[in-house]
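DM between two lab members

TW: hey, do you still have the MdtP family multidrug efflux transporter outer membrane subunit entry open?
JB: yeah, one sec
JB: this one, 495 aa:
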Amino acid sequence: MNTRTGLRGWRWRRCFLCVAWLSSVLPGCALIHHNGTPYAEIAPEQINLADDIHLARDGWPSARWWTRYHDVQLDALIDQALSDAPTMVIARTRVAQARSDVELVRTGSSLQMVALASLDREHVSANGFLGPFAMNVPALGLTGPWYTEGIVGVGASLDVDIWGKQRAQIAASVGVSNARLAETSAVELEISTDVAQLYYGIQTTYQLIDLLNELHEVAVFTVQAHEARAARGLEARTRLEEARAQQLGIERQIVSAQAQIRQLRESLRALIGAGPDGLPVINPVALPRSQAALPATLSYELLARRPDLQAMRWYVEASFHRIDAARAAFYPSFDIKAFFGFNALHLADLFTHASQQINLIPGLTLPIFDGGRLNANLSGAREGSNLLIEQYNQAVLNAVRDVAQTGSRLQALDAEAQLQKQRIEFVAFARDSVEAHYQRGLASRVAALEARQPVIAEQVALLTLNGQMLGEEIALTKALGGGYRADPPVELTPR
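TW: and the structure you got?
JB:
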């Protein structure tokens, strides 16, 4: 047998020994014991609304839903809030942070290169591992005991992602980043609806003060009339005191309404993040007519319309990738390190051809015994994912409940408002009758003015209903996700 055949045989035996060694070690690596079972996502049929919720108008709200009210003051307030509100700044910062996290995780699977340079002035120990180099025998190349060692070069490393651990970690980070984007839309929706609620609360109170002022004018004239009659002895002072008490009660309501406007303005200022002079003057405007829109059918599409639900779906999807990364940690990891440069014990020899150094170091890391750390990590990732799934399922049910309850309240308020309008017509008929008698000299002016009070009181009740309807309409817009749409919806694939 020649030398070449012997060397070839030795190489085959060495490969066989390596395979046999890996075959004996691989079964002894850490085993998966706590993978667990993923929880089930909520079924789409559980998202349907009841069939008895109907409004006069159908359709989805548009993206800038508040512009349908054609109120330039409201438009400016919401635009200012979406730009300057502290919660919006926080949400945008969280998105930027998530994007940075994605880039940080992505760099872990990229080629890493560094430039190296070091200088070591060393006195070699005569009793150490390098003892012979402590001698000073130039003929033998020994110039100890002092040496000035220099190293300069380029190093590189690469983690080979065979089992997809790095890919899973990147996907999880991307999922969190997408969730943060959806959360930003949810914050925008929250802020815009809160601003609209506060704004129309102020406008409703403005109109309430106008009606109370009308009542106050009637009360003042009534008090003056009773004072004149009591002074002439034409009636007892009881009627006068009752009229004064009624006037004071109206004045108290006016003061309370004015205080409520100040409170609403301060709430609006804090929400927008405006300074002492940063909130513009809000002029009174008429309340818009109700434009509530409830879709004729509402099931799985609700998931695409709600930014908070889409954010939770992205968090769930990210948790699945974390499970993949935790499972991949059980398998061997491979990396490659390399170095090219110069290394010499004497600086004078550093950049010579003989001082060139090249290192190529493939590496294998195989977990064998880790005290249960990997299984605990996998179990934690699985349980965290299951928790997110259950939170998502509950959020879906809550979203359907919000739409159903808000739609039902809006429907009831609409019916109440129609009945209240009819009631005002009947009360106004009695007022008109008394005024007609007054014009013919058959009734006093006091009687004509007092006949207006029931009508104004019923108008206050109708104003309250209209304000409640507008508030519920805005709440319905929020429950329907405003103008948000994720296209296509995130598809959850548990593993």
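TW: got it. The domain at 28-109+161-332+367-479 is CATH 1.20.1600.10 (Outer membrane efflux proteins (OEP)). Confidence is low (pLDDT under 50) at residues 1-10, 19-28, 53-57.
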